[in-house]
Amino acid sequence: MGGGGWRLARGRGARSAQLPLVVCAVLAAVILLLGKAEASIFDRARAALSDWASPALEYVREPLSAIERWVDGIGGIFSVYDENVQLKRENAELRKWQNVALSLERRAERYGLLINAVPDGEIPSIVARVIGHSSRPFIKTMILNAGAEDGVKPGQAVVDDRGMIGRVYLTGERTAWVILLTDLNSRVPVSVEPKNTPAILAGDNTPMPALDSLPPNATITPGGRVLTSGDGGLLPPGLPIGVVVADDSGPHVALFADSNVADYVQVLDYVVPQSPPPEAAFEATLPGARLPNPGPETDTDETGQGETGQGEAGQDEADMGDGDTAANVARATQGGG
Amino acid sequence: MAGAVTMNAARILSSVLPATFAIVAVVVANLPISLFGGLIPAPLLALMPIYFWVLVRPDLMPPAAVLGIGLLEDLFSGGPPGLWAAGFLAAYALTDRQRDSFAGLSGFGAILGFAAVMGMAAGIAYILASLAYLRPTPLAPLLLEVAVTIAIYPLAAVVIGWAHRRFVGPMRSD
């Protein structure tokens, strides 16, 4: 880059590098093939690397985040007035919708009581911080500072306060890798409102993933909300994802969540509710049926005082909550959708 | 005695500096930072120290180091392992073969030289990614990353050049 070009190496020609270069090229090819055939080897290496580097990633992140905020702030100065006007308008609109939502919520509660509907269970979740983010041409991933030690498992949904971001696909001891909805390899079963049309949300490395595998003759209206369908039992149904956007190349989805600005996210520990087998359910309704199991196993110690497993679990949870772990993991709960 | 120790320390520092630069570049490029609301993708920072030192002091940036840096990039970015390792090695091969031409470039020409090397690395990575995923990958995000990387290179070259002068040795232009 300098004015007069660069100083060349001393006593080192191109030919001397030929052999190592060929060897390294062969090694790279072997790694590529091995990566396809035995991906688990590299997954373990990747998880170990992120575990090892997580303190450094968190440490380096702080000053860079400050720069990010500063740069974003510069751009924001010029649009403060317009944004303020737009926000006021949106706020007025949202207040109107809030009233509608509240009245509908109360009505839904009353209907639920009338038909003895089973309320949606709460999904336990793990709060984790984003410590790595790869928005590359071939891959869209992020690294979280919570891993297997904190209860994170592959397949779990990752959401922020606006909607779903992606799924966990790899866990280390203290870190987890998330495949984003925009990634080329991401496939999520969804349903599209208002007709709950089933579809597959297929990432294509662009900011707006495509809607794929639509039923024949299905009509998708732009603006329709896209939610997880829960098909397959891996993801909870009803997680908000985005809205349909019309495009020349077919329907795409503008995502609610923006993974680029996500700081803290929730990893949902969803388990498909187990319904009792039909016979058992029928027997339970018969007169004189046996009382249900009283609950957690009760141990009686020498003093005769009972100590339940639930109490221990509760204590464990309290201990976990008190501890200021490096992962900043906290147990929280999230509504089913 | 003290002078010999200092000389050895300086030699060790200068020999590990290029690889260290590249490793830090890999980590920084994969941090969750999104400038301008995520509109601009992260540049391929690790290619910059590779290009610079393969050109200036290839003995400090051997192919094995390039392979290792590429693998680290693959592991950190979450992509197929070996993808950028192969891309960086292709960039190494081009730079090494054209060292005399590239080293004579300056100013805008130097940026064009880096653009050629970046294009080579991106092209190889694109072909391998399409083979790995068994379908053509979208080209637009890659072109955007190439453009951002080339645009940032002049600034990075100033920083790398300063580090080279300070810890490794003078440039030909000095």
Note down, in words, how this protein is organized.
- The complex is a heterodimer of chains A (337) and B (174).
- By secondary structure, chain A is α+β, with helices and mostly antiparallel strands.
- Among the domains of chain A are: 89-119; 122-268, Beta Barrel (Thrombin, subunit H), CATH 2.40.10.
- Chain A is 34% helix and 23% strand.
- In chain A, the strands form three sheets. A six-stranded antiparallel β-barrel of chain A has the order 1-2-5-4-3-12.
- The relative contact order of chain A is 0.12.
- Residues 9-14 and 294-337 of chain A have low confidence and may be disordered.
- Chain B has one domain (2-168).
- The model of chain B has no long low-confidence stretch (mean pLDDT 84).
- The longest helix of chain B has 29 residues, at 140-168.
- With 174 residues, chain B is mainly α.
- In chain B, helix 1 (2-29) runs antiparallel to helix 7.
- The interface between A and B is large, with 69 and 75 residues.
Quick rundown:
The complex is a heterodimer of chains A (about 325) and B (about 170). With about 325 residues, chain A is an alpha+beta fold.
Number of helical segments with 4 or more residues of chain A: 5
Mean pLDDT of chain B: 84
Percent helix among the residues of chain B?
Answer: over 70%
Oligomer: heterodimer
Any low-confidence stretches of chain B, pLDDT <50, length ≥5? none
- The structure class of chain A reads alpha+beta
Number of strands of chain A: 15
